[in-house]
Amino acid sequence: MSSYRLPNLGLVSRDTPVSFTFDGKPMQGLQGDTLASALLANGRMLVGRSFKYHRPRGILTAGAAEPNALVTIGHGGRTEPNTRATMQELYEGLEAQSQNRWPSLDFDLGALNGILSPFLGAGFYYKTFMWPAPLWEKLYEPIIRKAAGLGKASYEADPDAYEKSWAHCDLLVIGAGPTGLAAALTAGRAGARVILLDEGSLPGGSLLFETAMIDGKAAAQFARDTSDELRSMPNVRFMMRTTAFGWYDGNVFGAVERVQKHVREPVPSLPVERLWRIATKKALLASGAEERPLVFGGNDRPGVMMASAMRAYLNRYGVAPGRATAIFTTNDSGYTLARDLEAAGVDVAAIVDSRPAAGVDYRGKARLIREAVVCGVTGRKAISAIEVHRGDRTESIAVDALAMAGGFDPIIHLACHRGGRPVWSAEKTAFLAPGSLNGLEVAGGAAATSGLAACLGEGIAQAQAALEGVGLRCPPMDLPKVEGDDAAYSSNPLWSIPGVKDKAFIDFQNDVHLKDIGLAVREGYGHVELAKRYTTTGMATDQGKLSNVNAIGLIAKARGVSPAEVGTTTFRPFYTPVSFGALTGAHAGHHFQPVRKSPLHDWAKKHGAVFVETGLWYRSAWFPKSGERSWRESVEREVLNVRKNAGLCDVSMLGKIELSGSDAAEFLNRVYCNAFLKLPVGKARYGLMLREDGFIYDDGTTSRLAENRFFMTTTTAYAAGVMNHLEFCAQVLWPELDVRLASVTDQWAQMAVAGPKARMILQKIVDDDISDAAFPFLAAKEVSLFGGALHGCLFRISFSGELAYEIAVPAGYGESVADALLDAGKDHGIMPYGVETLSVLRIEKGHVTHNEINGTVVPADLGFGKMVSATKLDFIGKAMLQREGLAASGRPQLVGVVPIDPKHSFRSGSHILAKGAEATLENDEGYVTSSAYSPHVGSTIALALVHNGQSRHGEEVLVWSGLHGESTPARLCHPVFFDPQNERLHV
Amino acid sequence: MASLVPCPNCGRRPKEEFTIKGAALSRPGADADSENWFDYVYLRDNPRGAYEEYWHHTSGCRRWLVVMRDTLTHEVAACRDATDGSRSERRK
Question: Which one of A339, A575, A770, A916 has the fewest CB atoms closer than 10 angstroms to its CB?
Fold first, then answer.
């Protein structure tokens, strides 16, 4: 218990207390607190256990880089693990739980890992658990995974809504600190369309804990006034609680806005998070800098904190880090903190400066120890003293808080997301963003600029330059007058510290310490990319925000080279973790994918259809009647009834394309492999479309409704693909042809009426004469229905092999027409049937679908060899179809298959083996593409693609499914099982 | 995550609205030899830098476009309707 709330400092609202719980314990904070500042105000310094060694951890930072203070917020479906306490705004009733500890945070058995730590160094996975190998998956990995961990995700569904949005602007400013505010104000006053975003809850960035005066105002007041002016501008969009997480092609930025992550009960009409894609002409990265930790023993103990974070807790939240503090610094910024602490009445016991002399004249009460380092700390769950090493002497100083100021690293992640590599600056002793980024400039702390006045000036200048680049004129801006600014400072990086005994952490979140890096270099993993993976440094959820530069510095030191030579690993989105909810947006639950319903969906539902999903479509699969115990029973009835009486089937989901224009016939002639040029008006023709490589792409019927008007059908699955393909042909290959294409799939309800009584039934609603003489097989025309009340298209085509028609009517009339047909046919025994029956009927007739047109067959393989035009000059696939391999012996060819014993059956996908051959995949001669039970044949029947199948009719084979352990003796046969002479078609 | 394609008909639109077919090659004539056809159907260059591709604005104007893209940086240098320049020419 050492940190505490000071009486009147900071921007928190003293008269608005906020109650919350931590590990079930009730606590109180203030409006304006983060969870971290509220925990500190309650004297809670131990807030979590580390990933691997389960070391006690406290709050290290006051921002997005926090590696230690990860907690689980909320409960049920709103559980949010690994929330950074430093970013979570406090709200009334907030519930936070610490993570990775058992049975409790204060007494954690996992801390035994610390004792085992000699065995858990870098690469321990690969070394310790190598033998015996089978134990890895069953024993070692589960135990390691259980012991090493972060928070646990909930299994309950997230009850909240998320959404996605686009935004467009002239200038996007990332970060609303001094640089960003100055830039946005400059561009806003110039009338540019500006978006300013910041991950925090309050605009101002470092101004919120800065003690300097700007234009005679306190820095925080300047931030408030500037934001107020920006918010009043209609051309400026000001987005707080919004993190820009990635920079993408075309100057598009990804950002996530936490709309309602700071409230107890989200309003249901608003999303909790919104994912933004921001397309901007110019962008300014004003993301500031991250303070660099110092790598001394026990630098992870609760009570050790980044100096800038300590200053933020002090000045913004009014929280003192302890009763007696010390500051370990490598640069002048440590003295600013000392001054502020003393001004607030907090004792500073010592300032330990690694340099021989400071750039500032310090006159405070603290003991100043120059040319010295902190090499270790005393205390486990909270520090009680620091070990100060100077020359060859080490002394102990009692403190309960220690600030470390190791210099600053520009936050340049976004600038490196499109392939640019950071550049080491020996002058600034930091990695800087690569130069000449197209459309993005870096300014302020992110460009290693120090000093408030310099940052404000750079913000203004960069905004002016950006606007000039997009042709906007900027009125002159006065540079605000800054009093009490810190002078620009320089710092020599202090990579390694003498006298370290305890673990000195580089990556706090992944528990990577000094010795791990040394080990990696010694064992030959000194390349930065290898060292990263060998030690896992920089691979935690914080992506090495605090650790990467120290790791590079230490690798450089171990290898005796400059950090420039070591280089960095690759920066990739996301800058901070983004929830799956935000990335999913509204595409969850029912909205995961659209559902396509046929215009006859409700009609089918009314008749009790069972639906099956095919792609996005819901198709009626079969129509059970009461008393039927299985789908097989229903399907058998439907099949028999079609062949005996008549059936009605919804085929609306077939792709439908209307083609018109004076060259439409020529166009069809080129996209189909068979002839279409001379198709007579009023006729339908089956067509095969090939791919340019000669294999079959799709099939369907196309009818000529008028000289220059055609109606094409495609398979359900390829409807969209065929349309795209035809557009390619029309626009790219043959733009000189006069042809227009329109997808009309959704415009028509289409029904198959099949069976010997089909004509009788149809004639009751069709006004035109449809006798065999007037409307023979393959006739197609527009017809009048119900005495002229409606018009539709009638096609005499048959997939079932029966006397059959397909009738298309405007989609909205589909249900009425289907009802009328059932009514007209009720004395003739008409029944609805679904796709299962459709499938049985077509297999009985040997008709192919995409089960057979599987991308590996050419027309001859399916028995369509004679359809391919020999006289056409050109069509898609003609040239490549000539290849000898496509006509060679051994090709897969369509055959029928029946079991020798009719009581036996087999399933689609089974392999065909020669009789007597051993059941191995090497002996595979083809496979079953479609199978069904045929009530007419009285057994299972199937279609298969078998090597040289067309010349093997009558041969005995074995149908083998290794997966199911099934072997069935069968016989190959002609693929048409029913009415091979097609007599039923022409009645 | 995102990138924008300057469609000549619709303006800058997100790439999710487009379908990419691949290299923008011209189709050999019907009488071309098998080597030409083999190149057209199967062989592709894999250049580092500028590359012309057919993109279909599937969820937009439904026009086929020729997009000149840098395979290294993904910058789109040019984008035109695939029919432009060819319709009038071939009409002759």
Answer: A916
Q: Which residue in A573, A692, A873 is closest to B41 by CB distance?
A: A692
Chain A CB contacts of B2 below 8 Å: 248-250, 252, 254, 277, 279
- Cβ separation of B56 and A248 shorter than 8 Å? no
**A248 — contact with chain B (CB < 8 Å)?**
yes
Mean pLDDT of A479-487: 89
CATH domain A889-986 topology: Elongation Factor Tu (Ef-tu); domain 3 (2.40.30)
Contact predicate B86/A735, CB 8 Å: yes
Q: Model-level pTM?
A: 0.89
Check: CB of residue A16 under 8 Å from CB of residue A89. no
The class level of CATH for A660-743 reads: alpha beta
pLDDT at B89: 43
pLDDT at B91 over 50: no
Query: How close is the nearest chain B Cα to the Cα of A879, in Å?
Result: 7
| Cβ–Cβ < 8 Å for A41, A314 | no
B66/chain A closest Cα distance in angstroms: 10
- CATH numeric code, B4-25+45-87: 3.30.2270.10
Helix (H/G/I), strand (E/B), else coil: A788: coil
Give B64→chain A minimum CA distance, Å: 6
What is the CATH architecture of A4-100+294-405?
Roll (3.10)
Calculate mean pLDDT across residues A461-487. 91
The percent of residues in chain B predicted with pLDDT above 90, rounded, is 79
Residues of B in contact with A254 (CB under 8 A): 1-2
CATH for A598-653+749-841? 3.30.1360.120
- Radius of gyration of chain A, Cα coordinates, nearest whole angstrom: 38
**CATH fold for domain A163-289+410-483:** FAD/NAD(P)-binding domain (3.50.50)
The CATH number for A495-566, chosen from 1.10.3210, 3.40.50, 2.30.30, 1.10.10, is 1.10.10
Q: For A266-313, what is each residue's pLDDT tens digit?
A: 999 999 999 999 999 999 999 999 999 999 999 999 999 999 999 999
Per the CB < 8 Å rule, is A724 touching B58? Answer: yes
Residue spans of beta strands (DSSP E) within A156-222? 162-174, 194-197, 213-214, 217-218
Q: What does the pLDDT read at residue B2?
A: 63
Could you give the ipTM of this predicted complex?
0.95
Query: CB of A439 within 8 A of CB of A282?
Result: yes
C-alpha distances in Å from residue A221, one per residue of A183, A208, A214, A228, A236 = 18, 9, 9, 10, 20
